[in-house]
Amino acid sequence: MECHERTMTNTLTFQSKPSEHEAEKASNSYVMSLVALMAGLPLPIINLIATLAFYIANKKGTYFVRWHCTQALFSQLSLLFINSFGFWWTISIFITQKDTINNNYISYILVVILFNLIEFIATIYSAIQTRKGIHVRWWFYGDIADLICKP
């Protein structure tokens, strides 16, 4: 896979259109995170484990596939931290009865829902565009994928 470095930033862009097989595998990295989200919604670690397994399975794939698997993996990693905190805060409210539902809790849960909704929409969009062979870079995660995934 050919790529070149932009002069203003350190990010890589893809010059050639990926093959049909590459586009499908890269798209599946996003689809995997959606399927894992539906299957493991109450337990955030399941999403990360499924995406990590797909990443490991495609670690020796083409640069395009590895790059998109890496980006999907890091988006799931950030969701793990955000969702886990909300999950355990909710569990502590119902089990210990020491915590109460207050404005801080409601605000945090609304942010978690918003963040998950944005990530869900971005994942669907990325899966569709990547399947077409279009390279989709997410803010922040794309830069991390550039640093970790080498051509």
Structure notes:
With 151 residues, the chain is mostly helical. It has one domain. It is 70% helix and 4% strand. It is built from five helices and two strands, in the order ββααααα. It has a two-stranded antiparallel ribbon. A hairpin with a 6-residue loop joins β1 and β2. The chain is elongated and about 55 Å long. The chain starts with a strand and ends with a helix.
Secondary structure layout plus pairing:
Blueprint: E1 3-5, E2 12-14, H1 20-39, H2 44-57, H3 63-96, H4 103-131, H5 141-148
Helix pairs in contact: 1-2, 1-3, 1-4, 2-3, 3-4, 3-5
Strand content: under 5%
Total helix count? 5
Shape descriptor: elongated
Helix percent reads 55-70%
From the alpha-carbon coordinates, what is the Rg to the nearest angstrom?
17 Å
Order of helices and strands: EEHHHHH
Enumerate the strands of the largest sheet in spatial order, edge to edge or round the barrel: 1-2
